[in-house]
Amino acid sequence: MKPVRKAIIPVAGYGTRVLPATKSIPKELLPLVDRPLIDYVVSEAFEAGIEHVVLVTGRGKGAIEDYFDYAFELEAGLEAKNKTAILESVRQPIAKAGAISFTRQQAPLGLGHAIWCARDIIGDEPFAVSLPDVVVTGRPSALAQMVGEYTRTGGNIIAVEEVAKEDTNKYGIVAPKAERNSALFEMSGMVEKPAPEKAPSNLAITGRYILQPEIFALLEKTPRGAGGEIQLTDAMDALMREQPFFAYEYEGESHDCGDKLGWLKANVSLALQNDEFSSALSDFLKQKVN
Ligand code: G1P
Question: Which of 28, 131, 173 to mutate to test the pocket of ligand 1 (most atoms within 8 A of CB)?
Fold first, then answer.
């Protein structure tokens, strides 16, 4: 069984749900406590043992590339003033040279198309996909838990979690094959953004995937689906007919930071877990709520 060495992180989306905040900056650079969103998902990938991250970018996303590079003037200024801790924090995102690649999705044709754009960099090996809007807390991370499962199961694994029945039209929804009695289970199908009355369950795909490279050939022939876009969920539904495919209810809490309220909640929640802010912030919140 080949190990999961590479991860695709699609960052070409417009971030329409968080406009106007993202009118002139990529949504992936919105701050979450003290780091941009993209930092969380890239760090999660490297910590899970991924060796090479492929960011699929698009127009107006150049600032994301700079975040993962040296900033010589800034660093020289910090060094001259002996601001060592800050200097360390600005260097922290810089991975080993060559460990991050960038490729471009030239047209907004959907998540499935964005993943397909990375096919040559991935080649013929299994890979992870992490969606940067979805920040998952918990240790080990959701992706690390999945990589652990994968070493036992092989095949394909997607993270799922329960959502409110009325929200199924915001997610990919899976249909479990049988009664679920463990965190890892097989499915009979999956469907992108079904209306609540058509949803096969309330188990939503959460934005972490481990997939086999055969998905690329399927993506190539996947017609436009929900929202007029080429959907990864549709290609995965086809791959499930050919290969072992598991859903995995990971341990942890997810935050949808591509949504205004989700982003606000994520900031409060993560800040309350952060030693620097937790006590002052919880005092402040108590005052405000009372
Ligand atoms: C994407 C996927 C969907 C998944 C969701 C998780 O949708 O297509 O299956 O449930 O991410 O956030 P998007 O939010 O990009 O529309």
Answer: 131
Q: Which two tokens stand for residue 289?
A: 């709520």
Residue nearest atom 7 of ligand 1, based on CA coordinates:
171
Contact 206, 140 (CB under 8 A): no
User: What pTM was estimated for this model as a whole?
Assistant: 0.96
Q: State the pLDDT at residue 154.
A: 96
Architecture of the domain made up of 6-289: Alpha-Beta Complex (3.90)
**In the numeric block, which tokens belong to residue 278?**
């937790």
- CA 109 to centroid of ligand 1, rounded, Å: 14
Contact 183, 159 (CB under 8 A): no
- Distance of alpha carbon 49 from the chain centroid: 16
Residues recorded for the chain: 290
Question: How many CB atoms lie under 10 A from the CB of residue 252?
Answer: 17
CA distance 187 to 174: 7
Q: Are 68 and 41 in contact (CB under 8 A)?
A: no
pLDDT tens sequence across 212-222: 999 999 999 99
